[in-house]
Please model this.
Amino acid sequence: MIPKRLLLLIACILLSFLGLYSWNQRTSTLDRIATVTGLEVAGTVLKAIHGAQDTVAGIWKKYVHLVDVQAENERLQAENERLRVLLTLAAEDNAELVRLRELLRLPPPEGWQTLGCRVLGRRMGPTSPLIAVTIGRGYLTGADPQTPAVTPDGVAGVVYRAGPYTSTVLLLTDPGMRISVVSQKSRTQGILAGTGAFRPLEMLFVPHNAGLENGELLVTSGLDGVFPKGVPVARLTSIRPSSQTSFLSVWAEPLADLSKLEDLLLLVRMPGTSWAGLIDPPAPATAGTAADANAGDGASRQP
Model:
């Protein structure tokens, strides 16, 4: 049996519904409230959906843009690397141009002509029989044995062995190297000898009464039958009496940087050129053997 309270509650609900229905029929208030509420709920849902769509679309566009940016970045990096290589090559070409211009500024002595050549390799060290460089000229292209090799700063060495198209240039510091020199100021003559790689040069047979000064320039005397007269060779760095010989102990450093040779000029004597004051040129005294080099070497060694 249904309780009276439940029947009373149902009746109240029906009466309230009928009252609201009748009131809504007259005023349409509930319809407007329902319409507005539905629109707001639908608008909120649609806004959320469109916001999600915009967010997803934005993320996709950014991803596509980032992919394009990465591809562009990789392209720019490759282009940057290519330009860096070109810049390095251009810098090397410019450095070579500067060196060649310096060589071209070097005027040859009267009666001599110059031939440019590139240094192809280097032989220097305790395991090497010679302190020398290999150049890209041979006896078919002007590099005969005993041909002087110079730089814009001074003498570098002399051609020791020559092939058809390549040669070996013996450098000043080789122990077998001998050059007849004269001091530029006091006009003291002597023989400049190499003592080894990265070691100073020794001026042999200098008497005690020679008026040499530290810093004085040594130039070729032209008496050895190999080098023309007046080519700068070295600068004096040490002058002192020797307790072992009757000569001074005289040391010098080369004017040319022999550790950075890349290009050289060969001095070639033009046909018909005579040696100054000489009827017959003396026998070449340069680039002799080590035994020949030590034969007359009575001066002291490294100071």
